[in-house]
Structure formats: structure tokens, C-alpha cells
Amino acid sequence: MTAPIRVLVCDDQALIRTGFATIIGAQPDLEVVGECGDGRTAVELAGRLRPDVVVMDVRMPVLDGIEATRLLAGTGVPDPVKVLVVTTFNLDEYVYEALRAGAGGFLLKDAPADRLLHGIRTVAAGAALLDPEVTRQLVGRYATRIRPPAGAPTDVPLAPRELEVLRLIANGLSNGEIAAALVISQETVKTYVSRILTKLDLRDRVQAVVYAYRRGLVT
């Protein structure tokens, strides 16, 4: 049997901590190995417990979630820990700083439980994840900053269907929404996404969004 994904939950609100731990612990493939209420303790516990994923709040006492993420997963950390930031605050600077700090994903606390569980599994697998609503807002706010100059080349080495999927990713659609829009299965969408990232030499969906805007594929 495959060992369960070991999760450390860090949130300064005890009720939310308990709720997350209950949801996560009920899954046969997930295991809560610890809980804490501030970023400093999260760093200490992660060093001792070596969880596969830390579910991290942003606004916390002693040390906030962004700095804790940087200490756990930032550039130059010799043995980084994967971090999924889950917060109430859908603010651009939090999303941007969390990703810069090394977070593998960013979700809002009002996301349904299945999205939280999917996020943990996605980040544990080494893939990046952004809440679809967060992606939409970031794209809308920063699109003008990354659009290509007039006359910039727009040729993209993708098949027509792959190009269609890339445009939908750039518009903030999740795999499920893309599957519904194109009337295909989510597994097929995952295959297309994997091909797109490989062909364009991109790390994750976030880079795919930026690529699409820089190439003028979406407006």
C-alpha cells in the first residue's frame, strides 16, 4: 500500500484548524501529523515531523505564513517542504508573495472541501495549483502588464486543440470547467495540459497563463 500523504495544518484560528484536520484526517490517503497556530511553530514542526505538505494560513502571530513559507520552501532551502497556502484574504500581494516564497498552491478558505483535498494531493505530487477564482482575478488585474508589444511574434508550437485548452487555462478555467466547455473528460484535459507544459517548456499552469498573455493568445 502507498503511504498516506502526511499533512501539517497551520492556522491561528483553532476552529478552522480543527475543521481542516477533521476533513483531511477522514481521507484514507491523507494523515494529519501535526497542528499549530503560528508560522514559527510551523517551521519548527515541519523540521521535526517532515510532512509532505504544510497547509498554511497567511495572517498569523509570531511569524506570518508568507515568511514561514519562505523558510520552508524558498529559494536556497536545502530540503524544501511543499506548502499549500489557504487563506481568507484574496489579495493580489498575498498570492504573488506566497508564490514567490515557494508555495506550491494557493486556495481560499471558502473553497469546498473537495478542492482543499485536491489541492493537498496536487501539491504533494509536485504540481502547482491556484484557486480558479484567484487565477481569474490575477489574470484580469495583471493582463495589461504582460501583453506583448505590437508586432510581437504569436506563433505557438501547439496543435489547434492544445491551443484551445491553453486559452481556457489562461481565462482561469479549472480542468473540470475545461472538460465541460469542450465536452471531453477531465483525464483528457489533464493529458492536454501535460502536453502543453512539455511542448512549451513550462513548469505549471501559472506559467502557462503568463505565456498565453505574452503571446497575445487571450485579451
Automatic annotation (TrEMBL):
Sequence ranges assigned to domain HTH luxR-type in this UniProt record: 151-216
Matching CDD domains: LuxR_C_like, REC_NarL-like
SMART domains for the chain: HTH_LUXR, REC
Stored InterPro entries: CheY-like_superfamily, NreC/VraR/RcsB-like_REC, Sig_transdc_resp-reg_C-effctor, Sig_transdc_resp-reg_receiver, Tscrpt_reg_LuxR_C, WalR-like
Single GO MF annotation: DNA binding
In-chain residues carrying the UniProt-annotated modification 4-aspartylphosphate: D57
Keywords linked to the UniProt accession: DNA-binding, Phosphoprotein, Transcription, Transcription regulation
Top-rank lineage group of the source organism: Bacteria
Keyword check for Hydrolase: no
Domain Response regulatory: 6-124
One Pfam family in the UniProt entry: GerE
The keyword Transcription regulation appears for this protein: yes
Protein name: DNA-binding response regulator
Biological classification of the source: Bacteria, Bacillati, Actinomycetota, Actinomycetes, Pseudonocardiales
